[in-house]
Amino acid sequence: METSGGDGEVSGKRAKPSSDNAGGGEEDRISALPDDVLVHILLRLLTPEAARTSALSRRWRRVWTLLPELRFLYTQDCRQIRAALEAHEASLRCLFVGIRDAAPDSVAAWLPAAAAARRISGHLVFHNIERGNNAQEEAEERGAFALPCLERATTASLHLGLLGLAVPPAGVFARLTELSLTCVGIHGPGKLGHAVSSPRCPCLRKLTVSDAWGLDNLVIHSDSLQQVKLEDLHGLRQLTIVASALKDLDVTRCFMNNRKQLVASISAPQLVTLVWDDLYDPSFVHLGEMEHLQSLWPFFFLVYGEDSLLHNHACLSLVRRFKTIHSLTLALHYFWEIDDFDYLMEDMTMLPDITFFKLVVSANGHAFGASAFHVLRMCSGIRRLMLSFLAPTNVEVKLPFVYPVCLFISCLIMT
After folding, report:
1. Which of 31, 53, 120, 343 can bridge 59 by disulfide, Cβ–Cβ 3.0-4.6 Å?
2. pTM attached to this predicted model
3. Which residues form a coiled coil (predicted)?
């Protein structure tokens, strides 16, 4: 509310100092501050701590309910979360909930309250830290909670820690632009692919699904998706993506342990970056036209092994699909013991015309010069080279090239 003084100037109305402050002696100048300043102060506290300030005086009783963000850091009492959401009055630009070893009913106690009044207008982050080690057995035993329709949320990141997620069969996530599901078991009655497709997620631009069970068939039709990352989808047999605006696609370890009746069909004519760190065979993986593709990362190549390895066949089959590619990332992997295996680099006879080449080497203590130079001799047109080493190693690189190459060596020590 604003008032006008006699000189015509407009000044904000400030709350009068509370007469029931706890000190009873000195003037309570903090309580005299405007609501927006007090809210800014309380934003520095976790929500349970901010809510306790309501006991200070009548002036503070409802200030915390005006917070635009609520944060619960690994609380043990989910009833506390629901009570806070029901008492809260403002729209939420961020709701963060962290729980340790949550059960489905504990999540169901507060998540519907966050969605019921369309309260979340920004980001929802839920992180459950699990204690179990038998991932799939744990996911099946724990049961599932229903995902409510988040009508106003713009992003949702759910790390469920082996909890099951029941996908709603109806409802529109009208403003959702990003969705991330990690460590989750997918349950019916709805299908995840239908839920993230354009009719129900018209604004979704980025989708990440990682370490998930229960997705044997994933079908996505979207006009808005620009980035899709699918990683460790255990049991996936069929994948269909029709996305006219898709720019980046990452499929990693989704088909490795499930090699029967596999079908993958990708229609993404605007695709720029493709990471297919997985089995590939043109007989069951149909990638469609990719005229705009600039960056490719195929399955890793085993330097030593047995003939007809699926890894190497997948790598070479995908690379041979392209005559020219701006950026290629190729990973060479060595087993710890290689004495009883064949040298397989001779199977690699050609690479596309490349401008930027990233060679990733996991040498595991072995000399890798011969395999590296076997690859580099096929890359006469590169202008930039990056070498990444995924194990500690002493490296000396000499390039006998007669043409200019910008060489950038990046050593990554993986622990």
Report:
1. 31
2. 0.83
3. none
Contact 359, 388 (CB under 8 A): yes
Mean pLDDT (the chain) is: 84
More confident residue, 246 or 390: 246
d(CA 393, CA 360): 13
Handedness of CA 338, 343, 347, 350 (dihedral sign): positive
Sheet containing 263-267: which strands, arranged edge to edge?
217-222, 238-243, 263-267, 285-286
Q: Taking 70 as the threshold, does the pLDDT of residue 340 lie above it?
A: yes
Q: How confident is the model at residue 138 (pLDDT cuts 50, 70, 90)?
A: low
Which of 199, 145, 192 is closest to 173 using CA atoms?
Answer: 199
Residue 260's contacts (CB-CB under 8 Å, 6 or more residues apart) are 237
Q: How confident is the model at residue 382 (pLDDT cuts 50, 70, 90)?
A: very high
Domain chopping of the chain, boundaries: 294-415
**φ and ψ at 11, to 5 degrees?**
-130, 145
End-to-end CA distance of the chain: 58
If we measure between CA atoms, which residue out of 282, 211, 207 comes closest to residue 249? 207
SS3 51: helix
Rounded to 5 degrees, what are φ and ψ at 261?
55, 40
